[in-house]
Specification:
Rossmann fold; alpha/beta; 3 domains; six-stranded mixed β-sheet; 13 helices; seven-stranded mixed β-sheet
Length: 401
């Protein structure tokens, strides 16, 4: 850890109403504050301002830049200035000239927080919904650490109980990673089955261009949304069919790659048209998919009786044009991706590192050697976890099983 005070831009770069800069001081470095070009309206130097007091003043020479400061504690100062890059850049330049080391916000976070909490708070900052941020915040505010410490204190009294508890935590690993990585939902179907229209209906605005010529979508088009507070990435892919057009064939190849990486597939069947072997093949290829009987606002095709019948009572009848069935489909997506929600106060691993160390701890419990992995978990080291440890344990996730 650096012995110099560090400073970091705490808000996203670019245009905004307010920019926030955080300064993390080392013990004994508070006099540095008085060397900064800041004039508080109350006339007191920065080092003499009360902890927690919001202070208005001016930064810089002459008229300077209006700025508000607040000492969060005896080692942390926040500076709030006008948004945009110019004011923040100027203040950061002055901080650097006064002896601060300029760092990124994750590095500043690790500088000012306990290692494990810093690791989880960084994930809180990456959350895109209030629901996922609340779950992560509970982990950061003691649930994760207290759960691990409680297990350490109980060992080696019962290795069987310890192993079961760690496996329970690991079961939430895939869910924990998705708190900051959206679940991927991919639509599949024949050309002109209405995938673009359905994505637009789910999103509530036009993201995909809709055209009535088959084979129009040539690439994967994705859009982000939230369903029941869970971050979701919806992908509209090229219609799946044999094509001699090299450009369309490339789009179909990309579509299949996207489908293979999906957390959930929606197979669309246009019930106003005759069913085909392509429809049957898609349903067989993705047996865990949600089947959408699309364009239910149109008359159902009634040709020769199919052998065997294709349509099932499990299909969701949906119309992107009228909105019929959209709510039921959204509910089905949510319940399929997250069939169970973790109870309050339940430890949830939220990084690859945490999952890998928990997996290692399970293997070490029988050797009475799990303490090393558990203590390393609390230390939040920067070591990269082996990918195979994560892959071996995501299969049991309650969010995917």
């Amino acid at each position: 850890m650096s012995k110099s005070p560090v400073a970091a831009l705490w808000t996203p770069s670019g245009r905004g109403a307010i920019a926030t800069i955080r300064v993390c001081l080392e013990p004994g470095s508070r006099p540095l504050l008085d060397a900064l070009p800041y004039r508080a309206a109350n006339g007191k130097p920065l080092s003499a301002q009360a902890i927690g007091r919001i202070v208005f003043g001016h930064w810089g020479t002459g008229a300077g830049e209006e700025a508000v400061t607040c000492a969060i504690d005896d080692r942390t100062l926040e500076i709030h200035c006008h948004g945009g890059e110019a004011a923040a850049r100027s203040i950061l330049r002055d901080l650097e000239s006064s002896g601060c080391l300029l760092v990124s916000w994750p590095e500043a976070l690790r500088h000012g927080e306990l290692p494990l909490r810093a690791e989880i708070v960084e994930q809180v900052c990456r959350a895109t919904t209030l629901r996922t941020a609340a779950i992560l915040w509970e982990q950061a505010n003691g649930v994760f650490e207290s759960s691990v410490r409680s297990l350490i204190e109980s060992m080696p009294a019962s290795t069987t109980t310890a192993a079961e508890r760690i496996r329970d935590w690991l079961a939430w690993g895939e869910f924990g990673l998705h708190l900051t990585r959206p679940w991927r939902v991919v639509l599949a179907g024949r050309p002109n089955v209405g995938k673009s229209s359905l994505i637009n209906a789910i999103l509530g605005y036009t993201r995909s261009v809709v055209f009535d010529q088959p084979g129009t979508t040539r690439d994967v088009v994705s859009a982000s949304t939230a369903i029941d507070g869970w971050p979701i990435e919806l992908s509209d892919t090229a219609g799946l069919r044999e094509s001699a057009d090299p450009l369309e064939a490339e789009g179909i190849e990309r579509a299949r790659a996207t489908l293979n990486a999906a957390n959930l597939v929606l197979v669309l069947i246009d019930i106003s048209q005759p069913k085909s072997q392509s429809d049957r093949a898609l349903i067989a290829e993705y047996p865990r998919a949600i089947i959408v009987a699309h364009k239910c606002d149109l008359p159902t095709f009634e040709g020769m009786e199919e052998e065997p019948p294709l349509e099932s009572a499990d299909w969701l009848r949906v119309s992107s044009k009228t909105g019929a069935g959209i709510d039921a489909l959204v509910t089905a997506i949510s319940h399929t991706l997250v069939p169970r929600v973790p109870p309050s106060k339940c430890l949830i691993p939220v990084t690859e590192r945490q999952i890998a160390l928990l997996a290692r701890a399970v293997e070490a419990v029988q050797r009475s050697d799990a303490l090393g992995s558990l203590n390393e978990l609390l230390a939040a080291s920067d070591s990269s976890p082996p990918e195979q440890a994560h892959s071996a344990n995501r299969k049991g996730s309650p969010a995917t099983s």
